[in-house]
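Q: What would this chain look like folded?
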Amino acid sequence: MKKILSVCIFLLAWYTMFSKEYTVSLTLPGFNGQQAYVAQINGDMSYFVDTVTADLSGTFRSVFTNQSPVGMYSFVLPQLRNAEVFFIFNKENVRMRTEITQLQNVLIEESEENRLYYAFIRHKQLVLGNAEILEYTFDHYTGSKYLEVTKQEYLQLLASFSATISDMRAKSQGLFVDRIIGSSLPILPPTLVSEQEKKAYQIAHFFDGVDFSDTLLCNTNIFTTACITYLGLFSDQYQKSKNNTVFMQAVDVIVSKTKPYPTTHDFVVNYLLNGFETMGAQDVLQYISAKYLQDRQCVEGQSKTTLQRKALNNTELAIGKTVPHFSFTSLQAKSFTQLDVAKGTHIIVFWASWCGHCTQMLPAIVLDYAKKKDPGYSLITVSLDSVLTDYKQFTSGIPEWNKTIQVCDTKQWEGQLAQAFYVYATPTIFIIQDGVIVSKPIEYDDYIASMKKLGLL
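A: My prediction, written as structure tokens:
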């Protein structure tokens, strides 16, 4: 009987621990009945975790539990062009209030952690603003006496800021916000210097306070903001040289700082690859990918991570590279190998019926192909669906799909073609001419531009 009672007490304690709920609320007067989203921040990405509707007082409420990850979140307001009100969740109730006209002026009614966070943000902005005024004065005014006063004011500003931060960190000791503060302090030279000297100082000391060993900070925008801000310090050099080598040198520093910490390293490298892909900087993409693969050796036959596939896609299958060896049998029961794309123009598109972007983009690509009696190229559509009926249900509504070469082996990412082309996301498009990759468009507009450039549309 005692054993049964002990087990019951244990189960009750376990259930209580994991079922504990916390309420996070935002009051926005005048927003009663409106809808908002709660997003979890993960670097430069946001993932919706809840949809909430404001009550009559304009209060949005979302329920978190002990199983909700600690980190940075936001209320996303679609009515205000997806404006965000950020907050930290660390297993406590959070009550916030703000006005439509002053979203950044957030009043924290409950949650000491968020009070400290917003106090830090406000003080950081104030110090940076005052420092900028003093720096401008130092750079543009003459008179030794006046400049000496300016220097003293700058030193007083730094001393005051240091004292305030010390006080904040004493209050935030043991809280998640303390880690955020420590890794996002402004980089200010110890004395007033010229703009050029200030930039040199920031480049040399930018990551001094960033704790890349703290993987929990991946649940914020701290690392990604630090990286993009650091890269921004090199924008003047790039404008003068128009050479991406400048960014490669900056990347070297970032990689060296994160390399000792595998989780953070992968997180930051993935962010850099996404960013330079958006910029269309193929040389930087290949450079980062090659460095990453050198550090993370891929063993032949071993399953590759998404990031490894991305890096291999950028290096082994860059524009100008020959297509890899492959073989497949289409749903029309025809066999194909890389030799079948060695002559002429061919387009291979990897997609899936569960991919929202694909279901918008692929029908347009298929119709562009099917409307021509002789399009001048072949279109191979490779589905990563795991259930053949899902694939057929989607494509059956578009009869023109039957004109394409269709592939769906239901092996998803582990399919022979997906592995051969290091596919890590959908949709993925390869435009091939005479066995060589000539374009890898990401969006439909990019695809159309590439096709027109090749004289195919």
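DSSP finds 15 helices and 15 strands in the chain.
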